[in-house]
Design brief:
The protein is of the alpha+beta class and 689 residues long. The chain is 18% helix and 38% strand. It has 15 helices and 36 strands. The strands form nine sheets. It has a seven-stranded mixed beta sheet with strand order 15-19-20-29-28-25-26, with no helix packed on it. Helix 4 (195-204) packs across helix 8. The chain is globular.
Length: 689
């Protein structure tokens, strides 16, 4: 009897202290705006870690009394919540919010409605949470990384940078060639309807989560871990990842990577197809999808283009290339891509020395395995610059992409090989979109020291890059280069030039082979576009000669790949010494410009029209012309298409759309036809309220 009375008394005492909750108002609109997540919608609570959010608690009975009332709170994420793994947090009311850990405090006046402020730990795992208040009141919310919070590993102390690398829903990817970078607009769409849920599903479908969900959910507190998971999951080589890569011209069962204008359609297709891979992607598509997911989850992210990017398969920092006696490149596993795209994510690296925080490179394009998985990074960009190749993850592979030495050999018809002198560059004009503008920012200096500098030599020593350390200066006796003009437009005939100069004191008698062929951006060669073989080139001491090669549309037009690239190669053989020199240059042919004219005053929630025109530059008609447009907060998360069957001079359509939010937006346009494939364009549109 005594025990029963004691139990009854303690229960009565608990009821007196514990708040008796009737219902909650999560104040989604207020909180989402405060946490900069309102573009995801305001119908549910989406907050960032380490920053308080406020909910209204309506009491069934009694009122809140400071110092007397109590409330037990439990926040849980994942299928096996555990305080040990950081996926479960239990906390009670305190006098003030503590932003360094999970905490709760009443911030409103006493009464039957309580204003409750809750803050998550800045190190909490991101994802879906269940919040339990008291004994039985449960609600749900989503927690994201918080680059505005100084305690978060992804903290970035610059509002303009955050506007670009977290909040910007569109951007620019640089393609083309290092002599002629071409900006391509991309719709990231990280705040479009349903995209955040798809991003969280990507995390849930990763093999680490399927094997051990408790450990994986715990790992989601760590931006390094999440970035590495995304690097693996954006490709599908080992898992139920998003994209299947294809680097041939056969896109059966899918679409050309150039078809895509943004990430939204790709992510929705993956989600709706039960996590079957979307066909097909190439490097800029993989990087763009990874950028979308990173920004959606709250990790500052940008796309980087490395021109003349080396793919080193055997980890020796050397690319060995072979040409035949006509200067034609022979097949090899090791390639130099005309350009290659990856992403950089901003975060601290507590697992490394303190000087290696900041931008971390990771690459979702499946090239080589890392720890038995097709992923790459994250590796501090500074580690690449300093030659610190023992740092995690995949430092040597990324270092080779921007620094590999290139050795060229000629394979002769009799089976013998000889050295070829070739001034082939790697890692040129490393580029990203500038903050707040569409201009190209050259970031080569954050990956490499100036060529020939003492700092570069020290970095090569640390990396044990013996080939670069032993490099001899180029022989300046016979010089060979390739020059081009500015009128290299698709559909036109034009000349390119091999320029030979004799800087020796002797007359030189040489053979010059000058050829051209179509090429994909990844370095795969196609058909012949023009060829010249001069067996009797004589040069007096100090003399030079410019040898033209005419490229006719009638010949190159049928050979071009979608990348519109032609590889020019000049091979010079010195009869007196037997030495060979090779000059290579990749040229990209300009597509016609897509012109976009906005009709009417752009305002949110008002129907708008765009007149889109493309002049046909070819000496033949275009058939099956189709324009496609999309844009975040412009086209309602959809791709809008309009066709124009056959056009001799120009193709023109009018497309209607209704913007949903004010601000500066990109209308991304794709034009496709039988002869001009996936021409890209865009127009910046300022939407008024």
């Amino acid at each position: 009897m005594k025990t029963t009375e004691l139990h009854h008394h303690s229960r009565r005492y608990y009821n007196q202290l514990s708040l008796d909750i009737d219902h909650l108002n999560l104040e989604c609109e207020f909180n989402n705006v405060d946490h900069r997540t309102e573009l995801n919608g305001v119908d549910r609570l989406i907050v960032r870690r380490g920053q308080p959010f406020t909910i209204s608690v309506y009491l069934r009975s009694g009122s809140y009394q400071p110092g007397v009332s109590s409330l037990d709170c439990v926040a849980e994420t994942g299928p096996q919540p555990s305080e040990q793994y950081g996926t479960k947090a239990s906390f009670a009311l305190s006098a003030n919010i503590d932003t360094s850990c999970w905490s709760a405090s009443v911030t409103g006046p006493p009464g039957d409605m309580v204003v409750l402020s809750i803050c998550s730990s800045p190190n909490a795992p991101i994802g879906r949470y269940t919040l339990t208040l008291g004994r039985s009141v449960r609600t749900e919310f989503i927690l994201l990384f918080n680059p505005w919070c100084p305690g978060d590993a992804v903290y970035m102390d610059n509002e303009q940078s955050l506007a670009e690398y977290i909040l910007a829903q569109d951007g620019i990817i640089f393609r083309g060639s290092y002599k002629h970078p071409i900006p391509t607009a991309w719709n990231f769409g990280q705040f479009e309807h349903g995209i955040l849920d798809i991003c969280l599903r990507i995390l849930d479908m990763n093999p680490k989560c399927l094997r051990n969900p408790g450990k994986d959910y715990s790992g989601r507190r760590n931006a390094v871990y999440v970035s590495r998971v995304l690097s693996a999951m954006v490709n599908c080589n080992d898992d139920k990842g998003v994209l299947l890569g294809r680097w041939t011209t056969d896109y059966e069962g899918g679409v050309s990577p150039l078809y895509w204008r943004g990430s939204v359609e790709i992510l929705r297709n993956w989600d709706q197809q039960a996590c079957q891979p979307v066909r097909y992607g190439q490097c800029w598509v993989f990087a763009a999808v990874a950028c979308t997911v990173s920004r959606a989850l709250g990790i500052p992210c940008r796309i980087v283009t490395n021109y003349l990017s080396a793919h080193d398969t055997n980890n020796n920092l050397v690319i060995e290339r072979y040409v035949n006696e006509e200067g034609e490149l022979m097949k090899s596993k090791e390639m130099i891509w005309n350009y290659h795209c990856w992403v950089e994510s901003w975060m601290t690296r507590p697992d490394l020395k303190p000087d290696f925080n900041g931008w971390q490179a990771s690459d979702p394009t499946p090239q080589e395995k890392s720890e038995d998985v097709y992923c790459c990074g994250p590796i501090p960009v500074k580690a690449i610059k300093e030659g610190e190749l023992t740092f995690k993850y995949d430092a040597s592979f990324v270092f080779a992409e921007v620094n590999a030495d290139v050795l060229t050999y000629m394979k002769k018809k009799d089976g013998s090989t000889s050295n070829v002198t070739s001034a082939t560059l790697v890692g040129q004009k490393i580029s990203t979109k500038s903050v707040g503008s569409d201009a190209r920012e050259d970031i080569t200096h954050i990956y490499k020291y100036p060529e020939g500098s003492d700092e570069e030599r020290e970095a090569f020593k640390r990396a044990d890059h013996q080939n670069k350390l032993l490099h001899q200066k180029e022989d300046l006796g016979l010089l060979l280069s390739i020059k081009v003009t500015s009128d290299m437009k698709k559909g036109c005939d034009f000349d390119v030039f091999a320029v030979v100069t004799n800087n020796t004191e002797h007359e030189k008698h040489c053979r010059l082979v000058f050829g051209s062929c179509a090429m994909s951006y990844s370095g795969v060669l196609g058909g012949n576009c023009g060829f010249k073989d001069l067996l009797n080139v004589r040069l007096s001491p100090g003399a030079g000669e410019s040898v033209p090669l005419t490229l006719n549309y009638s010949k190159y037009g049928g050979q071009l790949t979608e990348d519109s690239l032609i590889r020019l190669a000049a091979l010079l053989l010195d009869y007196s010494t037997g030495e060979a020199k090779l000059a290579v240059r990749n040229i990209v042919l300009d597509d016609p410009q897509i012109k976009v004219r906005i009709l009417g005053e752009p305002k949110e929630n008002r129907k708008l029209a765009a007149e889109i025109t493309l002049q046909n530059p070819l000496p033949e008609p275009l058939e099956d012309c189709c324009f496609s447009i999309e844009g975040s907060n412009l086209t309602g998360g959809r791709v809008i298409t309009e066709s124009d069957p056959i056009q001799y001079n120009s193709a023109k359509v009018k497309i209607y759309f209704t913007p949903t939010h004010s601000g500066l937006r990109k209308l991304v346009v794709d034009f496709d036809s039988n002869k001009l494939c996936h021409v890209k364009g865009y127009r910046n549109v300022i939407i008024g309220k």
